[in-house]
Specification:
Bound molecules: calcium ion
Number of strands: 11
Structural class: alpha/beta
Order of helices and strands: EHEHEHEHEHEEEEHHHEE
Number of domains: 2
CATH topology of the largest domain: Rossmann fold
Strand content: 15-25%
Shape: elongated
Length: 231
């Protein structure tokens, strides 16, 4: 299921959104401030962000700017309260993908969410279909947690699968070793250092790539980290 991050400080509104989105089958995390939202976004790599403009601390505009600066390409739906905020969303070209002015109807919100996910990920975001990521003949089946190259099934450890999933869900996004280490924390002992990631990536390449020395799926970005190849 697609994951959605809701950044909204008014808890009643946030809970309402969370409930409605969960009813549609999305996994939803709520953050009550821009700062919290950014932390959650870097850990979760959500598929979509719903971002209120008026927040305590940094506002929605600044949150969006920092989100994009951190490399997130997740579609962002901004929630605005007034016409001048709408002007700002459009005028600043901060990278918001769509906006809704409060008060909005939930049905309208759901249709925007579906449209954004479809635009960003194609059929991957179709909540009724199986979610798959495809690149060349590599197929990552997110629901069955299976990886195929052509007809050949590739056996991965839980950690390898999570690493691959996170990289492949954001093609072209460079993940630092530290970020990847945070992502695999749930699957590994806590005292691992960043070199662990190199080892996992090298195992992944041996399993996935035709020539692990010249990878076409998981590429090294020198001095920065790793990225999944863009289509
Ligand atoms: Ca608010």
């Amino acid at each position: 299921m697609p994951t959605i991050l809701v950044v909204e400080d008014e808890s009643a509104v946030a809970r309402g959104l969370q409930y409605a989105l969960q009813q549609e089958g999305y996994e939803v995390t709520v953050a009550p401030s821009g700062e919290t939202g950014l932390t959650v976004a870097s850990e979760l790599a959500p598929d979509l962000v719903i971002l209120d403009v008026r927040l305590p601390g940094i506002d929605g505009f600044e949150t969006l700017r920092r989100l994009r600066a951190a490399g997130s390409k997740a579609p962002v739906l901004m929630l605005t309260a007034r016409a001048d905020e709408v002007d700002k969303v459009i005028g600043l070209e901060l990278g918001a993908d769509d906006y809704l002015t409060k008060p909005y109807g939930l049905r309208e919100l759901m249709s925007r969410v579906r449209a954004l996910l479809r635009r960003a990920y194609g059929d991957l975001a179709d909540a009724t279909g199986g979610r798959q990521i495809r690149h060349r003949d590599l197929v990552i089946d997110l629901e069955r947690r299976r990886v195929l190259r052509g007809e050949r099934r590739i056996a991965l450890t839980a950690t390898e699968f999570e690493l691959l999933r996170h990289l492949a869900q954001r093609p072209g996004r460079v993940f630092t070793r530290r970020e990847l280490l945070e992502l695999v924390r749930d699957y590994e002992a806590l005292d691992q250092d960043e070199k662990t990631i190199n080892v996992h990536v090298s195992h992944l390449r041996e399993k996935l790539e035709d020539d692990p020395a010249a990878p076409v799926f998981i590429v090294t970005v020198r001095g920065a980290g790793y990225a999944f190849a863009e289509r």
